Amino acid sequence: MHALSIPTWIIHITSVIEWITVIWLVWTYAEVTQNTYWRALAWGMLPSLVGAMCACTWHFFDNIESLEWLVSVQAAMTVLGNFTLCVAAWWIWRSSKQNDFSK
Asked: What is the distance between the alpha carbons of residues 5 and 1, in angstroms, rounded to a whole number?
C-alpha cells in the first residue's frame, strides 16, 4: 500500500464509492420516473467501475509485477466504459425523443 500517498488513496477510494453511488442513484431515478431507459446509463457505467477497481487493486498490492495484467484490464475497461457510456447516452436521447413524439 506504499505505492500511493494517503491523499491519493482517499481520492481513489472516494471515487469508487462515488461511482457506485451514482449507479445506484441513476437506477433509482429510472424506477421513480418509470423511464426505464435510464437503466442503460447504470449498466454503461459498470465497465468504468471495474476499471477503477482494477487500478485500486493493483495499487493496493504495491504495483507488483505479477498483477501487472490488471493495468491492461483497467485500460480495456476504460475503453469499453467510454463506449458503453456513449451508447447509453445515445439510448437515453433516442428514447426521450420517442417519448416526446408520442405525447
From this structure: 9
Span 63-81, mean pLDDT? 96
Does the pLDDT at position 47 exceed 70?
A: yes
CB 19 within 8 A of CB 49: yes
pLDDT band (50, 70, 90) for residue 98: confident
* Own/partner long-range contacts of 83-92 (Cβ < 8 Å, ≥24 apart): 84/43, 84/44, 84/45, 84/46, 84/47, 85/41, 85/44, 85/45, 85/48, 87/40, 87/44, 88/40, 88/41, 88/43, 88/44, 88/45, 89/41, 89/44, 91/37, 91/40, 92/37, 92/38, 92/40, 92/41
Whether the per-residue pLDDT at 74 is higher than 70: the answer is: yes
In one letter, which amino acid is 102? S
